[in-house]
Amino acid sequence: MRFVIITGLSGAGKSQAIKAFEDLDYYCIDNLPPKLIQKFVDLCIQSQGKMDKVAIVIDIRGGIFFYDLIEELKDLNMGEYSYEILFLDASDQVLIKRFKETRRKHPLAPSSLVSEGIKEERNKLKTIKEMADNIIDTSGLKPKELKEEIVKVYRDKEKQGKMLINILSFGFKHGIPLEGDLIFDVRFLPNPFYIEHLRPQSGKDKEVKEYVLGFPETMEFINKLEDMIDFLIPFYIKEGKYQLVIGIGCTGGQHRSVTISNHLYESLKEKGHWVAINHRDVNKDRKAKENG
After folding, report:
1. Which domains does the chain have, with CATH numbers?
2. Which of 20, 80, 154, 247 is 20 to 30 A removed from 110 (C-alpha atoms)?
């Protein structure tokens, strides 16, 4: 289990940080009272691996409860696991500017100057900052850049530098998938639908696969498609994209799109990419006839 405690100065970006952890599939809790940490850890351990990545935000908003944090961490029993502390910081000037822009009160200065609240908060957080495993100064970071910093440190090691590529075959007659980032139309390829013995089959079947891939224009298209995807992937990863959905569409989503999607899936997998595949409309027409 990876257990991360997120804390730091008000206005330093904890809300953005917790969103980044959610995108990394962490189970996230915002503003947990320190007294409840041990009970929550026990629940995580009892989940038998179902809650293996956890991030909790504990900060000065907890009021008097926050002051229990140091003692609770000293007594925290993680069993065979350990916890990490991520501390978010920023300069006074940047924090004051952020509070002005959002027109929010500082939690420690509800009726006085923001600068006074920041000063007091720095003093109260001094010890926990010294305990931190990672400190990120967000003064010069945009939300996207903060997310990138968090991804570098807290993404699963086996997925570092990788992006989930989800290949989705579909039929245009059933609608273009809304989640598609890149949509490719393969209706220009010869259609097995018009060959009687291939019509009831799908692109998963050997005969249909051999038919579709047997045309030179098919392989030329696949080569050009793979070249373009190989070019794009590093830039999407650099941008911080977690998932790329590539839609491959033919008329009904049964023959050509399924064949091309499967071929692309295998090719990307061989290159070491993190790939998933989904055939949205395969056999949809057949099932409709059976139900009709």
Report:
1. 2-159 (3.40.50.300), 164-291 (no CATH)
2. 20
Dihedral sign for Cα atoms in the order 236, 240, 243, 247: negative
Cα 158 to Cα 23, 71, 161, 261, 276, distances in angstroms: 16, 35, 9, 24, 16
Return the closest-CA partner of residue 17 out of 162, 154, 158: 154
Q: How confident is the model at residue 32 (pLDDT cuts 50, 70, 90)?
A: confident
Among candidates 105, 126, 124, 108, which has minimal Cα distance to 116?
108
Output b/e per residue, 42-76; b: 16+ Cβ within 10 A: eebbeeeeebbbbbbbbbbebeebbeebeebbeee
- Of residues 24 and 257, more confidence is placed in 257
End-to-end alpha carbon distance in the chain? 50
pLDDT confidence band for 17 (50 / 70 / 90): very high
Of 281, 219, 277, 221, give the one whose Cα is nearest residue 250: 281
Q: What is the mean pLDDT of residues 211-240?
A: 93
Mean pLDDT across the chain: 88
Q: 226 and 218 in contact (C-beta within 8 Å)? A: no
Q: Which of 169, 163, 164 shows the shortest CA–CA distance to 247?
A: 169
Assigned token pair, 175: 């609608």
Q: Determine the angle formed by the axes of helices 256-270 and 216-239, rounding to 10 degrees.
A: 50
The amino acid that residue 112 corresponds to is: S
